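Postdoc handover notes: sequence design on the structure in folder B. Input tokens:
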């Protein structure tokens, strides 16, 4: 019986505590709403976000913050304190340019209307006007250098030359830094077991002081057309050049075999006329009885072209 009585009393007491905590919480919420509903005046630092700065100019001084005095209710002040507020300054329309500086001297009314809501009243800006010293940027277009390690599935190869898109990058920054950059290399990459067209994104190796420079691209796409290749062989006539005047030269064989690799798609497009083999008589010695054939014309569509015959026998007849 005593135990039951003790439990009833304990339960009653706990309810009293719970009710007290609930009323205390409600009182705190009401107090906070009352405080936040009131209007306060305070000065807060705003970060300056510079947009549309002309490419040919670089801002020299930091001018990264301005102090603005505002009058608004407590709820709005909370939003300012939870995240660092920003003021955007558009260099294409909000500033005017002097010999050495950009000057922003917009009125408080302009700033109030463009970057604050009606709940906020702007009272003061410090400094006013805001000046930005600038220097002249150098703009330079530099080529991309790349040399990836590529391995093909047997029988496959590139039809055209490996290229990068873009093939060059525009670098913008202080003259002392940009003038030292003559090209940009791509990061080392390996493309293995290739049997389809190459389309590979690769990052560029950028200078360490990248914070002071702007690049039109920080990665490139390596591209090339890949097809299955086969070997072709054609009989190409031999042409002897630089023979002495009034001299007849008989030589054998009159044609040589030229072997080459070509994609299946271009196999039928290759003909004997696409090659030219010559023997230069001036390159022979007095006691030499043979000419050396040279392949001097090769179509762009073929790879690894070579002559099977290394000597052309000849005799001089007058």
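Designed sequence:
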């Amino acid at each position: 019986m005593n135990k039951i009585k003790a439990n009833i009393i304990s339960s009653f007491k706990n309810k009293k505590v719970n009710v007290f905590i609930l009323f205390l919480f409600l009182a705190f919420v009401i107090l906070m709403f009352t405080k936040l509903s009131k209007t306060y005046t305070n000065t807060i630092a705003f970060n300056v976000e510079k947009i549309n700065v002309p490419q040919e100019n670089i801002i020299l001084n930091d001018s990264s913050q301005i102090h603005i005095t505002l009058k608004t209710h407590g709820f709005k002040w909370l939003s300012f304190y939870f995240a660092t507020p920003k003021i955007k300054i558009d260099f294409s329309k909000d500033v005017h340019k002097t010999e050495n500086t950009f000057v922003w001297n917009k009125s408080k009314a302009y700033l109030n209307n463009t970057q604050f809501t009606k709940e906020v009243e702007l009272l003061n800006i410090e400094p006013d006007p805001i000046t930005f010293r600038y220097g002249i940027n150098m703009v330079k277009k530099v080529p991309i250098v790349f040399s990836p390690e590529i391995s093909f599935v047997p029988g496959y190869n590139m039809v055209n030359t490996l290229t990068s898109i873009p093939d060059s990058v525009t670098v913008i920054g202080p003259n002392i830094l940009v003038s030292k950059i003559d090209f940009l290399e791509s990061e080392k990459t390996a493309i293995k077991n290739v049997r389809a067209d190459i389309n590979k994104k690769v990052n560029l190796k950028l200078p360490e002081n990248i914070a002071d420079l702007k690049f039109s691209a920080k990665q490139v796409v390596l591209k090339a057309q890949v097809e299955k290749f086969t070997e072709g062989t054609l009989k190409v006539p031999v042409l002897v050049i630089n023979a002495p005047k009034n001299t007849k030269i008989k030589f054998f064989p009159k044609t040589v075999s030229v072997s080459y690799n070509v994609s299946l798609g271009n196999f039928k497009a290759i003909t004997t006329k696409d090659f030219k083999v010559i023997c230069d008589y001036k390159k022979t010695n007095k006691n030499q009885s043979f000419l050396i054939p040279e392949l001097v014309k090769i179509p762009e569509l073929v790879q690894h072209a070579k002559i099977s015959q290394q000597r052309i026998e000849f005799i001089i007849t007058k």
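Context for whoever picks this up: The radius of gyration is 40 Å. Don't rerun without checking with the PI first.
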